[in-house]
């Protein structure tokens, strides 16, 4: 039985956050539309609306979203520690929120500095070219950061399953965000296929991929904020009971969620490799950065 909260701050906070999220989604959609119509517009040496370029409005907005995720995680940490002082250590290892915050801040910094595309860009392509010819058609930063990607999704799956049992809105939006992110990763991994298929199809693929990346971050942000509001202003008996059941970080539900994540990531990796293999068989054009490395 759901009992409505008597705290007016609870509902006002929910409404404020809902409006804020709507604005973020609107801006994301607007950037996608601007990319569709103005991707080739260049001013001051910058493609300001092109989602496939860096150091422009979409990049800064995306970096801001990840920064918000990191800040939201710190807010959740604060309220868990505060409630632990009152409710006798109700929340298990609140410091684990620091991991979520670190991931958010690191992704924000990466968006601003293009670190993932520049770090070991030459070395990883030399290694990939020696593994198999088809590997040159795989998005190389995904090859380099594959362990980090698996760890990040696994961390989110286990930790959010443990925490968000006390907030239905939070767990639904969190796993919706994770799903959207995995679709974006799949599109990113097969981007060379779209690029070789023509500029129009590649532009559309970029639009969907980048929008999903931003939308996934918004959903994750929404989940963390919802959870924080629930434990800050509506920590009722039902939520306490759900939290008290999460005595183990890796519960059966957590193991199930982790298993699903690993299966989906494995399937995505297989699909990406099959697309790359098809490009190799067709002797498709080699990516420009590989041409520089291989001197072709």
Number of helices: 13
Sketch the major β-sheet.
none
Run of helices and strands: HHHHHHHHHHHHH
* CA-based gyration radius: 21 Å
Segments where pLDDT lies below 50 for 5+ residues? none
CA-CA gap between termini: 67 Å
Lay out the secondary structure.
Elements: H1 8-38, H2 57-86, H3 97-113, H4 115-118, H5 121-131, H6 140-144, H7 146-163, H8 168-189, H9 191-197, H10 199-233, H11 237-245, H12 252-281, H13 288-294
Helix pairs in contact: 1-10, 2-3, 2-10, 5-13, 7-8, 7-12, 8-10, 8-12, 9-10
Q: What do these coordinates show?
A:
The protein has 296 residues and is mainly alpha-helical. The protein has one domain. It has 13 helices and no strands. α1 runs antiparallel to α10 (199-233), α7 runs antiparallel to α12 (252-281) and α8 packs parallel to α12 (252-281).
Provide a short characterization of the protein structure.
The chain has helices spanning 8-38, 57-86, 97-113, 115-118, 121-131, 140-144, 146-163, 168-189, 191-197, 199-233, 237-245, 252-281, 288-294. The protein is mainly α.
Short descriptors:
single chain, 296 residues, mainly alpha, globular
